[in-house]
Amino acid sequence: MDSAQNIRFIRRQEVERRTGKGRSTIYASLQRSNKRFDPSFPRPVRIGPGSVAWVESEIEDWIKLRIAERGAVPV
């Protein structure tokens, strides 16, 4: 994992921009009971009362995984 000085948090709006997912889809991806649950989607980190953020490198890795999976599936 990155050293602490290289870790950067990003807020939900930035996660939306980078992934193309909307707010409700992001939270649905995190709920096991939801049909849109995605166990590979990074979990947020609590950064304060009522505030969460995502680790930037984990979001980047998730995007790279989606790209890699695209090439593995025959069309």
Tell me about this structure:
It comes from Stenotrophomonas maltophilia. This is AlpA family transcriptional regulator. InterPro entries: AlpA, Prophage_regulatory_activator. The structure is a single chain. This protein is α+β, with helices and mostly antiparallel strands and 75 residues long. Strand 2 and strand 3 form a beta hairpin. The mean pLDDT is 93. It has helices at residues 12-19, 23-30, 56-72; strands spanning 9-10, 45-48, 51-55. The chain contains 3 helices and 3 strands, in the order βααββα. The chain is globular. The chain has one domain (7-72): Recoverin, domain 1 (Orthogonal Bundle). The protein has a 3-stranded antiparallel β-sheet.
Number of helices: 3
CA-to-CA gap between the ends? Answer: 34 Å
CATH topology assignment: Recoverin, domain 1
- Write down the domain tally: 1
How does the overall form come out from the CA principal axes? Answer: globular
Q: How much helix, percentage-wise, in residues?
A: 40-55%
Q: Provide the low-confidence segments as ranges.
A: none
- Gyration radius over CA: 13 Å
Level-2 CATH architecture: Orthogonal Bundle
Order of helices and strands: EHHEEH
Protein name: AlpA family transcriptional regulator
